Amino acid sequence: MLLSTFKAIRTLFSNDQHTIHKARNELKIIELEGIQTVVKSFKVPHLLNRIVYTYFRKSKAYKSYHNALRLQSLAISTPEPIALIEFFESGLLADSYFISEYFEYDFTIRTPLLEPLTDREEIFSAFAAYTYGLHQAGVWHLDYSPGNILIKRTEDGYLFSIVDINRMEFREISALEGCENFNKLWATDKELVIMGREYAKLSGLDENLAIREMQRHNDANKQTKNFKKRLKRVLKGDFSTPA
Asked: What distance in Å separates the CA atoms of residue 19 and residue 6, rounded to the nearest whole number?
């Protein structure tokens, strides 16, 4: 792509209306020079973090781009990285963007977790096998949550692709530790049984141990998230008991 396109990304992003996600950061599908792309705009950090990301740590956009290249080198699917763009004001990091090609997918892992798909058990087994493959490659996705796991049906089964990859670790992962990586799915115990059986079969773990560990980490994550929600309500002055 032309350098002028990247330099104009602030304006292009601001003028585009195709937002697909907006929270702390914002994602838009934007056609750039005939290519369908996903542009992720990272929230401008507060002053202290602007200093940190300028002098001491790599930005989230930088990590997203270089983690994507690392995943590709390991033959792990993630949308094709195109560019990382950083803007500086008064010598400190301000706006930053990560651009990747749009990945055509059918649904995320959230769909079989919430909907009665006829092949949901097959998806869960394939997902457990995929996750085991990630761990064997030394990939630990720290935001391994339902919306970040894309799935495309293929003639050979299912193609998984991971996004939101700025928070990752590349290291050795034991089979027992790997069971923790399922904790952000908000899966039911029955769903974790399916995943646990497949993960145990591939990793050599005792099946009951794998299932028990997945359920334990899953429950712990739910308790932590629910506690934080209750704490936020209390801090806002809402002392009602949730239904």
From this structure: 19
Half-sphere exposure of residue 182: CA atoms within 13 angstroms, side-chain side? 35
Q: What is the DSSP secondary-structure string of 56-78?
A: TS--HHHHHHHHHHHHHHTT---
Chain Cα centroid distance, residue 169: 13
Place of tokens 């530790």: 177
> Other CB atoms closer than 10 Å to residue 228's CB: what's the count?
10
Q: Which residues pair with 39 in a beta bridge?
A: 28, 99
Q: How many CB atoms lie within 10 A of CB 198?
A: 21
Q: Note the pTM of the prediction, 2 decimals.
A: 0.91
The SS3 of residue 209 is helix
Collapse the DSSP code of 151 into the 3-class scheme (helix H, G, I; strand E, B; otherwise coil) and give the result.
strand
Q: State the Cα–Cα distance between residues 233 and 95, nearest whole angstrom.
A: 31
State the Cα–Cα distance between residues 114 and 61, nearest whole angstrom: 31
Per-residue CA distances from 179 to 61, 145, 188 (Å): 28, 14, 15
**pLDDT tens digit sequence for 189-238:** 999 999 999 999 999 999 999 999 999 999 999 988 887 777 777 777 76
43 phi/psi in degrees, rounded to 5:
-60, 140
86-107 pLDDT, tens digit each:
999 999 999 999 999 999 999 9
- pLDDT more than 90, % of the chain: 89
Angle at 174 between CA 172 and CA 179, to 5 degrees: 125
